[in-house]
Amino acid sequence: METFENGSKIKKGRLNILDLSGTWRDMGRQYGALAAGELRDMYDKAAEKFLNTAPDPQLIQQTADKFIANYPFRFKELMRGMAETSGLSAEELRIVNAIEVIAAECLLPPQCSGIAVWGDYSAGPLVYGRNYDYLPWFKELSGDLTMAAFHPADGSLSVATIGYAGEIYAVNAMNEKGLFLELNNGMPSGGALWYDSRIPAIAELLGFMLDCSTLDEIESAFQTTRANFAYIVGVADGQTARCFEWPVFDVKLRLSHSRPGLTVLTNHFTEFSWGLPRPDDRKYWLTRTRRTNLLNLAKHFKGTINETVMKNIMDTRIDDLGATTDLTLYQLVAVPERYELWFKIPDEQEWTAIDMKEILRPRED
Prior knowledge:
Elements: E1 2-4, E2 7-12, E3 15-22, H1 24-34, H2 36-51, H3 57-69, H4 73-85, H5 90-97, H6 99-106, E4 113-117, E5 127-133, E6 145-152, E7 159-164, E8 172-175, E9 180-185, H7 187-190, H8 201-211, H9 215-224, E10 231-236, E11 241-246, E12 252-253, E13 262-265, H10 287-300, H11 307-315, E14 328-335, E15 340-345, E16 349-355, H12 356-360
Parallel strand pairs: 3-6
Antiparallel strand pairs: 1-2, 2-3, 4-5, 4-13, 5-14, 6-7, 7-8, 8-9, 9-10, 10-11, 11-12, 14-15, 15-16
Helix pairs in contact: 1-4, 2-5, 3-5
């Protein structure tokens, strides 16, 4: 175990796990010191892919600067603390924070698949499976994958995010109340509009997890907040899951009338009240095929799905009628009621158990 001030770092296979506590500036200092190597690697890879090859490198920095410009103050404080101890400048850290946004502008946006089962579909409490799919070269960053557990001194809830080092937002997260969240791209249905004038939705999601104790509170947060881009977000507690289809102009809770106890998220909206046609499957990363395959697997294993079966479902490749592809960078399976999570990097790290209760240290109400 490595320590710095009130923070610590351990590794579970390739995954770095940071335990941070104190003010946001304090946690930033701990983050910067403990993840200095991973942050440097992220920046060097970004420089290699973007800064050294872009016709105008200033545009890369401008994208990173615009991305963080409207961040909440507490997250900017975290970044300031990181700049004090990481060995990277504030400008370099902003590029690290925005590396996936920059990559999406240059090439293609993230894809991803998710499935939650409960009730008649599960063999016990709710189980959530999730594939994080992105550009193939991000496999070079597998050693920089990081779980950052924040224990703020400001009274916010403790939250653990899972992503790449230096990314101060939430595409995967669990909080001390046992809420689990994961995000998918929703562009095939919600369009490609991007608003620099709004707080990035993925930063807002981190705020939701810091501030919300229940699914009802999370739903209120969605209803109150406008996204800067189109997303599909799944949120679950120990008993049920909800899916929010969140374009820049509205948000709708997806209602499942025919499959109570099951929700599947890929990259297109399926709430019928949108009145949208289904997107072209080939053009949009086989989003319909992945969804259909996961629905069929859930139907096949209905009533027997626990964490072991869910791992097998997530391990099933698209060629074998699953949803995992060559673009799947890492995978998660979560049982929020028991604060259990498993993490996998295809071809690099098999399913690895992580005790989220130990990491999040839930407080009594």
